[in-house]
Amino acid sequence: MDPFKQMGDWKKNMDHFFGENFWNEFEGIIKPTIPQINVYQTENEITCILNIPGLTDLNKIDIFVDYASLEITGVIDIQHQGGTVVKEEILQGAFERRINLPFPVRSDKIKASYKNGIVHIQLYRLISDSSSKHRVPVRLLEDK
């Protein structure tokens, strides 16, 4: 008897009983989202810190700001070759994150930088009501 077939049957029964979107609530628990992100706010600023290890080409990450949301897309690729994986905890692959910001931000005053596997994004409170999506350039900070 195949235990995975039983698990698939069990999932279908749960989908039938609770609805097809039942498992979406558990996706973050079963498969954590990448990249990991911390968002901090002060009265007029938002700082976003993203964990993106192994980024060697800044063109492989796109950051867009649209009024009160931040969208990040890219790929985490550690590029290790050789040997058999014994333990793998650093999540890799293509990602797309959309973060709702606590308040609208200015599109003309955005700073983003990358150093030691961390992306820092600095955003500033918007006082007007206009909305437009803008790509944010990321600059590489060199070690001193």
From TrEMBL:
Can you give the residue ranges of the SHSP domain? 28-141
Q: Would you say which domain of life the source belongs to? A: Bacteria
InterPro entries per the record? A-crystallin/Hsp20_dom (IPR002068), HSP20-like_chaperone (IPR008978)
Q: Which family does it belong to?
A: Belongs to the small heat shock protein (HSP20) family.
What is the official name of this protein in its record?
A: SHSP domain-containing protein
